[in-house]
Amino acid sequence: MSTARRPARPDRRPLVAIPARFAATTSALRYAAEVNARALAEAVWRAGGEPVGLHPHAPAGEADPDEVADRLAAFDAVLLPGGGDIAPRRYGHRHTHDSVYDVDDGQDGFDLAVARYALGAGMPLLAICRGLQVVNTVLGGTLHQDMGGPEREHRHLVHPVTLRPGSVLAAVAGAEKAEASCYHHQRVDRPGRGLAVTATAVDGTVEALELAPGAGWFVGVQWHPEDTAADDPVQQRLFDAHVRAARG
Question: Is there a catalytic annotation at residue 154?
């Protein structure tokens, strides 16, 4: 398995690997597609990075770790984006809540392998919504499969989150509060090994996770910073910091 990554050059944009999301239909392409949100790619581009979609290859739900390592060796950073739910069996649950949706075994297998490699190789890693849940799962954490229905879930919601003083997130944001654009019905239950909670919502929902200092650049947020990054400097700074870390 290759773990060597090419050094970032000051005269080029750092390459940011973003696992694509499977889409059943897209009007422009007529058929099923692999996609990422335009707002996400634009936020990475504004930060000075080159966003590159990765084909999620995980036959029978398991990606080859050597293959993933070889593919990621060409990149400077990884961004795990939002998407559908992770199969509950991946974090040790025997039963699946009725609200769980868009589970794709291949998507899960690839995202988990990418997160595992990025963490092990010390690649700068930004994880958004589902991405945060993927990292939490890789590190042995668990999720609440459902937050309790429309009156409690965080869908189509912009609300304040409190950032922990001294965290990477607070330093990047330059603030102790941020307005977060959320779309999720699941949340972290038990944080994974080595993860610290660095932001919360008023209802106690875990809104951000980080690794201990010295364990590599990782920030995971439960909200979607790309939704408002074009107009909210606090959200754009998260992408800026990620790309700076990629320049290394």
Answer: no
